[in-house]
Amino acid sequence: MKKLKLRWLLVGNLISSTGTSFIWPLTTVYMHDYLGKSLALAGTVLFIESLIMIGGSYIGGYLYDQGSGRKWMLLAIAISITALLLLVFFNKWPAYPILLIINGFAGAIANTIINALAASIKNHEASYVFNMMYFMANIGVVLGTLIVGLVVKLDIRYIFVVTFLLYVIFFIIALTKYVFENVQTKKNETHIKKEILQKTTKSSIFIISGILLTYLMIQMGYAQWQSNLSVYMQSLGIGLNKYSYLWTINGIIVVVGQPIISFLDRRYGINNVKKVYVGYALFVVAFASLIFAKDYEHFMISMIIVTFGEVIAFPVIPAIVANLSSDSERGKYQGFVSIAASMGHAVGPLLGGVVVELFSYELLFEMIVLLVLTTTIISLIITRFNLKK
């Protein structure tokens, strides 16, 4: 039986991330500027998409744990391909949000299954696997956001065409190279009964819950960068192309910074739990800096701080969850990682749109800082207490 090779997971992650980064940076701007919809309505669409993605993440984790991940992963990618093809021809209201939501649902199923598949690799440490997955995803962000700033000037539909083609390539790689080694084992009824007894410990569940609580709040703040910040920057006279280049900077820092973090990790053996809280602290600083940002230079500084927090914290979150969860519940807890991110993306744009229209951007950033700081402290207390146990 063929074995799953990490390099094919990384290539697939690169291609899918490049395709995805053609769409998500422009969603709010496209709805607001091209379709003439309000920020609140754009936030509502993203809210609904993220809620649907929560369901997709849960379903993906469940299907993986049941041993039927491969066929559902392929079906989910095929659904995304269909939605992206339709977007080439039907990108007005209400076709655009409907197809966007369908693509998000299918993508959540596929991504959760692929993350669980990555956690099943035994010849590498979980932290190394997810660091590399994250690294390749951000190379995709660099490529995607760099190109999208040029493509959008030609025709918005070209974005959907390129994304569609990339996902076709992604499907071919998943079909031919993604091997689910655990499927045959899970078909053995005796082994399944044995695995059922291996539940995740309560202490581990508490630690996972605390870390994911803060992760959810950070994703709420991060979602502002991907939605309302684009409109805010344009209101300050900063062009859309400069906004897209911030994401290019984000990707470049990740690409350069990730190997450095990995080297320091191998050299000094930095604990993953410590790393995640250092990253969380940087997010607090970054979100606080947005309160005072009024020109492009300040937004750039804030993005740089955000990116360092992201580089340090985001790759180790699924690795911590993979190490703390039992093999029989691997899919479920990787699904919870995706659910936390999706919930943040669900609430973030909608909350941001409402707060901005009723009050101000400054109040929005202050709220995000307070939420992230409070949950970080709570999570740290929970983690320290349960690690001692």
From TrEMBL:
The keyword Cell membrane applies. CDD domains: MFS_MdtH_MDR_like. It is a multi-pass membrane protein. InterPro entries: MFS, MFS_dom, MFS_trans_sf, MFS_Transporters. Keywords: Cell membrane, Membrane, Transmembrane, Transmembrane helix, Transport. It comes from the Bacteria. GO terms for cellular component: plasma membrane. Pfam families: MFS_1. It is found in: Cell membrane. This is MFS transporter. It comes from Liquorilactobacillus hordei DSM 19519.
